[in-house]
Amino acid sequence: MSYSLSMSGVLVGRSELEVRDADRKVARGTFRPGLGYELAQPVFDLFEGSRGDSSALERYRQARDALRLQFTDAGGAVIPVRELTIRRKPGAPGGAAEYVIEIEIDHAEFWRAGS
Question: Which residues span the domain enclosing 39?
Answer without folding.
Answer: 3-112
